[in-house]
Amino acid sequence: MAKRLLTSAVAVSALLIGCSTPGSVGGVSSANAAQNEVRYLTDEEKKIGREAHPQLMQEFGGAYDSPQAAYVERIGKDIASYSGLGNAREEFTVTLLNSPVNNAFAVPGGYIYITRQLMALMNDEAELAGVLGHEVGHIDARHSQRRQRAAKRNNILGVLGQIGSAILLGDSAFGRLGQELFGRGSQLLTLSYSRGQEHEADDLGVLYLDRAGYDTQAVSTMLYSLALQNALEKRARGQTGRSVPSWASTHPDSAKRVRRSAKKAAKTEHSGTGKRNREAFLQQLDGLLYGDDPEQGVVQGNRFVHPTLGFAFNTPNGYSVNNGSRAVTVQGQGGQAQFSLAPYSNDLNAYVRSVFDALAKDNNRLPYGEIGRTTINGMPMAFSTARVNNGRQTVDVSVYAYEYSSDRAYHFVTITPAGRNNPFGQMIGSFAKVSGDEASSVRAKRIDVITVGQGDTVASLAAKMPFDNYQEERFRTLNGLANDARLTPGQKVKTVTF
């Protein structure tokens, strides 16, 4: 959640779910790529990418301005050049995102994105090239074209009914909000790839690695690290309140996928013998920002704190929290909520009306009731609820707005099943200004690459990392270490430090 919060763009918001891409045109199979048939990105594909790129940059934290960005760009363009796509090195755009979630995705036209958090999970250059190659594979095989056709067959706008497009599509302020309760809405542009398409992208990633001389087993070792990370997140979810989808987790067969990629790689020339470039990669990784960027706010257990803007609120136990660059989304079985801001002119009632208006499109106003007023933690608050039906389910859409100062206001929008108690009541009542002491206590975490010394163990190094739980599991996951793996003096490992 950046210093300046804006309304979210639905068309790109759900890209965090697996490897997702807005729609494309045309079609080609991996067989063409394998046979060295050269093809070129079409003008329409390039147009889609150019138009999506600025929205994606805003939605997912923007570019991570660091030396690592140039390194990622170089590796991405290099691996794309082995895809069989003509002019790939010149035409591909590879971006390292300032995002605290494990994710990578692509859009048509040669636009590849990877988050710094996913990069931190990697252990060598071959794994980085493998992930980027997987995304190049989605573009090379034009997988998004098949997803777009499926979405059109579903006739999503018709399914949503009268209010669906207002809440879930276009210039809506909801972002990801409403996907679970309203069904398939914003998946028009964010449908997950099929299992077969993910496998095909894995295979293409292996192919590109082999052509580039990398160890092709890097795809399977990266998938193994992701399986460890996903398992850790599931165990920690209830305690941390933080749950974010990870790259390559579209399907629940992680172990099978690891084995499948390893088997595929074993048939290649560079399986187990190709370059890994671990030392160079770790040197690049050292100092990388890890987890939340304090400039965008941080999740601390069940508490979200924005030290720069000076506010905080508590989230419900067991609910997931996604801190985007323009909004914070909270979701669980009982409903979904999104926290953001809008322009404020010192009239809180008008602010609430403007939020409801922003949720509607094409003059399709939400039928909200009388606006109530109260005071929360010394701040004036206004609120109202609209009960709506999308043809499938009746829900309550509520807006809760706070006057932070004479020229600034914030708000929650919640979606809950109609007539039920709002599970976000305590969260709504917890919004407050933070003290200077709490704001100053928020510190950034970074990756620190160290050399294992005599007497160092997994337990001793893990105990130094700034986490309240699962320290040893986090250390092993970060370094791709099995439960029985031991450290040796002189070995390079990653730790997390302030």
UniProtKB/TrEMBL annotation:
- Which residue stretches belong to region Disordered? 237-276
GO BP field:
proteolysis involved in protein catabolic process
Which stretches does UniProt call biased (Basic and acidic residues)? 266-276
Q: What is its EC number?
A: 3.4.24.-
Compositionally biased, Polar residues: which spans? 240-252
Pfam families documented for this protein: LysM, Peptidase_M48
Residues of the signal peptide: 1-25
Q: Which UniProt keywords apply?
A: Hydrolase, Metal-binding, Metalloprotease, Protease, Signal, Zinc
Cellular component GO terms, alphabetically?
membrane
PROSITE patterns recorded for this chain? LYSM (PS51782), PROKAR_LIPOPROTEIN (PS51257)
Q: Which GO terms describe its molecular function?
A: metal ion binding; metalloendopeptidase activity
Which EC class is this protein assigned? hydrolase
Q: List the cofactors.
A: Zn(2+)
Q: Give the matching InterPro entries.
A: LysM, Mito/Outer_Membr_Metalloprot, Peptidase_M48
In this chain the LysM domain maps to 448-495
This chain belongs to which protein, by name?
A: M48 family metalloprotease
Lineage, broadest ranks: Bacteria, Pseudomonadati, Pseudomonadota, Alphaproteobacteria, Sphingomonadales
